[in-house]
Amino acid sequence: MSDQIQFIVEKLNQEPFRKNYNLITFDSLESMQLLQLLSDVLGEIDPKHAVDIREELPEQTAKRMLSLLGILKYKPPGSVSDLSAFRQGLVTGSKHVIHPVLHWLLQKTNELKKRAYLARFLVKLEVPAEFLQDDTVADINKQYEELMEAFKNLHKECEQLKTSGLSTAEIRRDISAMEEENDQLVKRVERLKKRVETVQNHQRMLEIARQLRLEKEREESLAQQKQEQKNQLFHAEQRLQRAQLQLKEMHHAVVDSKPESLMKKLEEEINFNSYLVTEKIPRELESKKTSAYFLQKVAAEPAMSQSDLNVLEIKINEVNAQMNQLIEKRMMKYEPIDSKFSMYRQQASIIARKKEAKAEELQAAKEEMSSTERQMLQKTSQAHELEGSEVLKGDEFKHYVNKLRSKNTFYKKKRLEIAEITAEYGILQRTEELLKQRHEAVQQQLQAIEDKKGISGYSYTQEELERVSAVKSEMDEMKGRTLDNMSEMVKKLNTMVAEKKASLAPVIKELRQLRQKCQELTQECDEKKIQYDSCAAGLESNRSALEQEVKGLLEECVQEESNYRYINCMKRNLEIQLQRAKEEMKAYVSPDPQERRKAMREQYTRMILEQENLGKKLREKQKVVRESHGPNMKQMRMWQDFEQLMECKRECFLKQQNQTAIGQVIQEGGKDRLVL
Known about the structure:
The chain has helices spanning 2-13, 23-27, 31-45, 58-71, 80-92, 95-107, 109-122, 129-132, 135-163, 168-197, 202-256, 259-300, 306-334, 339-385, 395-453, 458-480, 483-589, 593-598, 600-627, 629-675. It is an all-alpha fold.
């Protein structure tokens, strides 16, 4: 108990409470102060409960706290009688009740905040069944349930995103980089469009470029198909090699073995496979199915807290202890009779376990052997592709490795020399470009001076003469030059190159230092930028959290207003019903018969009498109809027969008339013939 109080005091002295309690001051708190402290802790978990208990009745305070503790799934210790004592102690502010509640709340503050936040949206409002008869209310209730399910899914996705490790700063950097690239591409496309519009037949050229792009894409797809077919061919060759290797092994096995050994080997394989099929695999499959069933059952249940898990562990331990006790009782009861059978059962179970272990070892060895065979085939195929003659072993491989190391050092040395030469070449090339630019500027100045003096072209002619004379002198020198002069020139050039190297070495060194400093500064800039982005993301997340909180409070305010209006409407309906009941009672009790006739009871009794009289008349009419039903049906059948008889007579009469008319026509035709 002292550890519990010490924990509560430590938590209350920290953020966000800052109560500055010690054990003595906390223990000396009165019941009202304890209740206010509990209300403050509940208000930290759910801001709706941050109220002053002096402004509400004790029953309201207890009801509010009990409802929130029920939402947070707090389970007070004890039975039903203890629960009633717990409620009474919560109303009176008893230390024995409030201290455990504070300890439990302060232990799981973050988890309970999340649970209270979810309860605000997931605790379903119970609508009475008589109100659900209305279509509008039923539709709104259905929409409410659909929104609740949508909120559950969104909350799960949000939690998954929080735990996935994605940084908002990195995502924003990627988005900004992609936006910049998109802007650059759009600008480049616009520039290219403007540049192409000035060219003649640009539409035809664009069409040709489009066809070229399509052909390139087709070429890439064909190359991809070719690569896929190559891969398929490579896999087929590997399968062929494996089949050939298996065939060789089978040939060797057939050559080196006898039919009896082959039959024995086949029997062993058949026994092993039948054991796997009949015993091991069905047992593993059954265990997997049971584990999957239990996992699905656990996943279907609601989320459990640590306290629920602790309760389940305690129950499991109790059930295991009971099982062990029952097993011990059974063993003590049947031990003298089944001692031999128990020994045989133990031996059989040991043999079965050994059999399972050996089967698993054999299966693992077979899988390992097949994997090593596949690796060996891959390595051999790679060696054949590289056109290697054979695999080196022992001293030959060491000699080959030493040779590769020496070649590697020689290669690194030459690469450094090439890097120095390329750097020097770049510097000399830049110097040459600068000198050419200066020469062009001097030439332009000289040409301007010649134009001003009226002797344009003088420098060009002089250069041509000097060039011709130089060429002539060079030709003369070349004719008279000897090998010693060429060697002296080479020495001079080498000395000049060495001097240039010496003069440029400090500049290159300084340039390297500046480059290193530039890299350090860019790295520092990137780090500062990352810090800035993280700080901005944190502020943004805080802002969004505050906005969500404000939005939640506004929604809560709207919900409370709607509840208030709904309660007012219900109150008005009840008042109207009460008024109608009073008027009905007044009219029913009134001595005036006119007033009594206006009462609903009198009206309904009159209607009931009218309906009873009507029912009596209808029953009498039904009786008359039922009695006259047989004769009427007989008379109706007689009339139907009479109607059929008359219809038959009519048809016979019509046929007779038609026959007499035809006979008269025939007689008249015969007389005419006789006359003719």
